[in-house]
UniProtKB/TrEMBL annotation:
Belongs to the alliinase family. This is Alliinase C-terminal domain-containing protein. Residues 25-374 form the Alliinase C-terminal domain. The keyword Transmembrane applies. Keywords: Membrane, Pyridoxal phosphate, Transmembrane, Transmembrane helix. Coiled coil: none annotated. The chain holds residues 82 to 457 of 457 of the full protein. The keyword Disulfide bond does not apply. Its cofactor is pyridoxal 5'-phosphate. It comes from the Eukaryota.
Length: 376
């Protein structure tokens, strides 16, 4: 990305290192490149080779509801959830998707009544993460329409990082739980979730956003079947190459934490992730204090069943607020060559911006340095 000043923008591409101090810092997307050093260190343990003759068929296991789900990937998903204890995989159907983005569309298709004349309302409590592609009925707090609806519960939430529960408490609704960030590096795992339809993604759990894989844990067989049908109509399945790679990545991750339960904790992916996130949040809070122009949400610590100790939430995004005169925080930060996403995109005030906490070290360092030097 070549920027106005002819320099190279930060936050895109593979393995970018050197950053001139006046670089544009792009923290608009939640690109999880922060995890690269861990996977670099894993080397051959997380590498796969796929011979030319392999993965040629459309089909993976025709006896399964999701017939394009690779058994190795399914097995590693179950193993990882068992290790972490963040979601119940017993008596569930696993549906794989090209990112949890495709699975969300599949879920909307599966949960919409087939005989309805109008599209179903989709709501989520503000601030929310939404493309608004479907019949978006907006903020769940103010939703008062009749008829069936789907409520999307993102927990921890994108953009503000808080843990959430459903808001619309009336009949005729179905819940979709987006648990992309319900992993120990981001939040204390306070319960083994057991919802009807839960979405996960490698993008945020391991950092492999480019692999484009997500999975849904679905209680109801008919819903899992309909989601599978949607993906069949949309992309005739999901890349097997990606699934094999993701299986190896998840296996390496689980191995790294299983082994270190007895030995060295720092080798475990979740310990590594937790340590960096804690460090980054501390640095960000220090920078905000030094600047005096911004504020951040405060989170309550809680007992994490995985880490068996009290931990604090360290969300993947910072929901930063410009205090004082500044009305448009996104433009204000852009003036300081920091690219973020305005609160407006999430149904909130433009005094807020969402800032990715998952970029490479060099970019994050530059960001906190620059932020701390901004004064009113
Ligand atoms: N859900 C949430 C809450 C997200 O923040 C994101 C990515 N920003 C996604 C889903 C999409 O993930 P994927 O890369 O798997 O499509």
């Amino acid at each position: 990305l070549v920027t106005e000043n002819g320099g190279v923008g930060v936050g895109v591409g593979d393995g970018q290192k050197f950053l001139p101090s006046d670089s544009v810092i792009n923290l608009d997307h939640g690109d999880p490149t922060m995890y690269e050093p861990f996977w670099r260190k894993m080397g051959d343990k997380a590498t796969i080779v796929i011979p030319g003759w392999q993965c040629m068929s459309y089909f993976s296991d025709i006896n399964k509801v999701c017939w394009f789900l690779e058994p190795d990937f399914a097995q590693e998903i179950i193993r990882l959830h068992k290790l972490v204890g963040n979601a119940n995989t017993e008596d569930r159907y696993i549906v794989v998707g090209t990112g949890s983005t495709q699975l969300f569309q599949a879920a909307l298709y599966a949960l919409s009544p087939s005989n309805a004349t109008d599209p179903i309302s989709v709501v989520s409590a503000a601030p929310y993460y939404s493309s608004g592609l479907y019949r978006w009925a907006g903020d769940a707090y103010t939703f008062d329409e009749e008829g069936p609806y789907i409520e999307l519960v993102t927990s921890p939430n994108n953009p503000d990082g808080f843990s959430r529960e459903s808001v619309v408490k009336r009949g005729g609704g179905t819940l979709v739980h987006d648990l992309a960030y319900y992993w120990p590096q981001y939040t204390p795992l306070t319960s083994m979730t057991d919802h009807e339809l839960m979405l996960f993604t490698v993008s945020k759990s391991t950092g492999h956003a480019g692999t484009r894989l997500g999975w849904a844990l679905v209680k109801d067989k008919a819903v899992a079947k309909k989601m599978t049908k949607y993906i069949e109509l949309n992309t005739i399945g999901v890349s097997k190459d990606s699934q094999l790679r993701a299986a190896k990545i998840l296996k390496t991750l689980t191995d790294s934490c299983e082994i270190t339960e007895k030995t060295d904790h720092t080798e475990c992916f979740f310990e590594y992730g937790h340590l960096i996130m804690a460090e980054r949040w501390q640095q960000l809070r220090d920078a905000v204090k030094r600047s005096g122009v911004f504020s951040l949400p405060q989170f309550s610590p809680d007992f994490c069943n995985y880490k068996r100790t009290v931990t604090e939430p360290h969300p993947a995004f910072a929901w930063l607020r410009c205090e004082g005169e500044v009305q448009d925080c996104e433009s204000f930060l852009k003036g300081h060559k920091i690219l973020t996403r305005s609160g407006r995109h999430f149904g909130e005030d433009p005094k807020y911006v969402r800032v990715s906490m998952l970029d490479r070290n060099e970019a994050f360092k530059l960001f906190v340095e620059r932020l701390s030097s901004i004064h009113s």
